[in-house]
């Protein structure tokens, strides 16, 4: 696991970005077709939107808005990750608790975020608390289900092996069970991060709590479609930065063995 | 000195008895093979003896300080390297980091795992190398008792023979005690000091036969002749050759 290995890994990861860029190019082409069909008032062209994005990003006040939304989204996601994982682990170990928790999860998933926003605005006011709580409530069921699934589907044979090898129950929990849970938790965390960002922007817009949501509300009232699209792109850029800057590197570190398990030809 | 004593052990799965009145004793320096047809409860008995399953009836007395278990599948941690998997066998022991490394290296050497493979993940190893890693993990803490639950069933004949020699060299011939579950009479004759035959329905040990000479010093002719004699002349050993699993009630 030397420096050359890490450099190679980062290089391969960056190189794999070409596939993502080509996918984005296809999306941009469809967008361009739409812009040409409906005109720039309804749907501005991608190039115009990107120019608007750079204009917005050049303003330090706008950068603070993006940062504030990102921090709120990350705070909500972190809360969801901690609470969802802990509850999921407990439910995964105890089928009775799982049976009790299932309806609550369905309830959390089924209630539209707008309903939570109304309640949370009453409880927390029109500030960051409402935004963070909305993001956490929207994202936590996903993490819960992922963690519970990961624990339920763990290989119990490995736990017997660890018991015979002399590991205490706490060591078995951290070294064997939680480690096995990761394969189900990381996809859930990626979903939860996207949900947390979406819920944060929506809560900002509806609760008039500033951030990207507040800026989107302003663009809506001014009927500035170009600015609205540019803000959406900025929010997606912030989400992608957090996902590929924090979550995916953690995943790559924890699941390095999976790359070794892949057959040649699939790795790159 | 008795390292393992099973007294009238019995167990029930979903209301159906799988083991009844099983009594067995394993002394220090003795590797006992437990043979019987598939589905007769050999693995359950080994897991009861090792403490992985609590028996419904009877008592288990363990006179050893530390034991290790080699399962039918290697049961390696897929996210850990060979070195880390072997080091797992030292869990719970107060071993300094430098000594830990030395003991892991010694265990890997004993099972002929080359140093170039120590940093590989299990998915990068062959079936034999994985099972050798599992054996190294069992041996690294120098346990005084070893459980083997049909550890070489999934290996080809040549590799199985090599692994059997490895067990003889590292366990049977080193004064440790052990219980070796197998349904291969030749394997039992090659590795063990005594062979216990479990009833096809798990109703006790039918017979316990001492094998002449010590493991590692028996010729192939002697092993094949003894196996032939046991199966043809000894009606109790005929059950070992049965292939039908016990039917579900």
UniProtKB/TrEMBL annotation, chain A:
It holds the Pfam family BPD_transp_1. Keywords: Cell membrane, Membrane, Transmembrane, Transmembrane helix, Transport. InterPro entries: MetI-like (IPR000515), MetI-like_sf (IPR035906). It is found in: Cell membrane. Coiled coil: none annotated. The chain crosses the membrane at residues 12-34, 74-93, 105-125, 131-151, 182-207, 227-247. It comes from the Bacteria. Residues 66-244 form the ABC transmembrane type-1 domain. It is a multi-pass membrane protein. SUPFAM superfamilies: MetI-like (SSF161098). Belongs to the binding-protein-dependent transport system permease family. This is ABC transporter permease subunit. It comes from Mycoplana rhizolycopersici.
TrEMBL record, chain B:
InterPro entries: AAA+_ATPase, ABC_transporter-like_ATP-bd, ABC_transporter_ATP-bind, P-loop_NTPase. GO terms for molecular function: ATP binding. It comes from Mycoplana rhizolycopersici. SUPFAM superfamilies: P-loop containing nucleoside triphosphate hydrolases. Signal peptide: none annotated. The lineage of its organism: Bacteria, Pseudomonadati, Pseudomonadota, Alphaproteobacteria, Hyphomicrobiales. This is ATP-binding cassette domain-containing protein. Belongs to the ABC transporter superfamily. Residues 4-234 form the ABC transporter domain. Keywords: ATP-binding, Nucleotide-binding, Transport.
């Amino acid at each position: 696991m030397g420096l050359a290995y890490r450099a190679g890994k980062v290089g391969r990861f960056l190189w794999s970005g070409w596939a993502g860029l080509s996918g984005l190019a296809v999306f941009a082409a469809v967008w361009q077709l739409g812009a040409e069909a409906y005109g720039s008032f309804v749907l501005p062209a991608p190039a115009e939107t990107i120019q608007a994005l750079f204009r917005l990003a050049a303003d330090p006040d706008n950068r603070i808005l993006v940062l504030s939304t990102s921090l709120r989204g990350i705070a909500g996601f972190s809360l969801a990750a901690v609470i969802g994982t802990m509850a999921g682990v407990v439910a995964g170990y105890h089928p009775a608790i799982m049976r009790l928790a299932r309806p609550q999860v369905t309830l959390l998933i089924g209630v539209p975020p707008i309903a939570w926003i109304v309640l949370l605005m009453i409880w927390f006011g029109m500030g960051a608390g409402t935004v963070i709580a909305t993001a956490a409530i929207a994202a936590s069921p996903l993490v819960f289900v992922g963690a519970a699934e990961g624990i339920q589907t763990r290989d119990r044979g490995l736990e017997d092996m660890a018991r015979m090898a002399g590991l205490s129950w706490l060591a078995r929990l951290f070294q064997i069970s939680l480690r096995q849970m990761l394969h189900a938790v990381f996809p859930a965390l990626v979903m939860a991060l996207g949900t947390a960002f979406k819920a944060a922007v929506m809560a900002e817009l509806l609760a008039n709590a500033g951030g990207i949501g507040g800026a989107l509300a302003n663009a809506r009232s001014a009927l500035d479609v170009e600015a609205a699209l540019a803000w959406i792109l900025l929010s997606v850029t912030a989400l992608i930065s957090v996902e590929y800057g924090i979550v995916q590197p953690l995943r790559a570190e924890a699941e390095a063995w999976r790359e070794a398990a892949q057959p040649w030809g699939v790795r790159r | 000195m008795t390292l393992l004593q099973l007294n009238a052990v019995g167990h029930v799965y979903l209301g159906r008895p799988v083991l009844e009145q099983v009594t067995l004793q394993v002394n220090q320096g003795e590797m006992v093979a437990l043979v019987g047809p598939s589905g007769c409860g050999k693995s359950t008995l080994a897991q009861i003896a090792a403490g992985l399953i609590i028996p419904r009836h009877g008592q288990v007395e363990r006179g050893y300080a530390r034991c290790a278990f080699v399962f039918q599948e290697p049961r390696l941690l897929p996210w850990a390297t060979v070195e880390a998997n072997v080091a797992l066998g030292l869990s719970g022991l107060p071993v300094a980091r430098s000594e830990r490394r030395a003991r892991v290296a010694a265990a890997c050497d004993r099972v002929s795992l080359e140093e170039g493979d120590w940093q590989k993940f299990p998915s990068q190893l062959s079936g034999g190398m994985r099972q050798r890693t599992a054996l190294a993990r069992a041996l690294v803490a120098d346990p005084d008792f070893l459980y083997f639950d049909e550890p070489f069933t999934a290996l080809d004949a040549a590799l199985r023979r090599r692994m059997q020699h490895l067990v003889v060299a590292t366990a049977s011939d080193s004064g440790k005690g052990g219980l070796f579950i197998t349904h291969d009479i030749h394997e039992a004759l090659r590795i063990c000091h005594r062979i216990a035959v479990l009833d096809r329905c798990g109703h006790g040990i039918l017979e316990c036969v001492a094998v002449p000479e010590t493991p590692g010093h028996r010729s192939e002719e002697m092993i094949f002749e003894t196996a032939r004699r046991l199966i043809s002349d000894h009606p109790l050993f005929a059950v070992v050759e049965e292939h039908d699993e016990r039917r579900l009630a």
